[in-house]
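Quick one, probably user error.
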């Protein structure tokens, strides 16, 4: 694949708000490459500054018109096919229910595996939940243009109590 074709395709997806990819997603973008050509293209696109690799298995179009949710897009790519939502300290901070604001740290509940990923856009902490799909959908909010759902304040508090950490950060109501 030549650079101009790669840029043309990546810019087309960027105009639709898509700028974070898994390796499998990129394979579909560059469908006309042989497997070997594709394998050789990825390092070349990274070296030329067209793609970034914020963490293993995730690629970001470096020339994209990013929104403020790059770290959430990366989280979606890391746990694609699972239910994921912002909760715990990140959600409670947005609601003003805890005394500190996590900077460059995103806490995400997931039906997938737990794990912590350090990226140039912030650290993502996944905490596993066994909640069923309907429970998650009824206790989270979808905000337009935001890639991840966010827990309601009550659900985020419930999640924080369940994992049993940082309860001291909660702001007491009078």
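Nope, works fine. Designed sequence:
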């Amino acid at each position: 694949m030549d650079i101009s074709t790669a840029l043309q395709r990546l810019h087309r997806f960027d105009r639709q708000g898509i700028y974070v990819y898994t390796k499998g997603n990129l394979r579909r973008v560059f469908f006309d490459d042989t497997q070997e050509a594709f394998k050789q293209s990825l390092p070349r696109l990274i070296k030329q500054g067209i793609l970034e690799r914020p963490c293993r298995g995730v690629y970001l179009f470096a020339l994209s018109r990013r929104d403020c949710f790059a770290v959430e897009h990366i989280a979606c790519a890391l746990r694609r096919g699972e239910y994921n939502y912002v909760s715990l300290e990140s959600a409670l901070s947005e609601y003003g229910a805890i005394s500190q604001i996590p900077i460059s740290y995103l806490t995400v509940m997931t039906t997938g595996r737990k794990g912590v990923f350090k990226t140039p856009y912030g650290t993502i902490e996944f905490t596993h939940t066994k909640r069923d799909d309907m429970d998650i959908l009824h206790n989270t909010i979808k905000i337009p243009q935001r890639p991840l759902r966010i827990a309601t304040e009550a659900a985020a508090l419930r999640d924080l109590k369940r994992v049993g950490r940082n309860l001291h950060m909660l702001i007491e109501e009078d």
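The CA atoms of residues 19 and 53 lie 12 Å apart.
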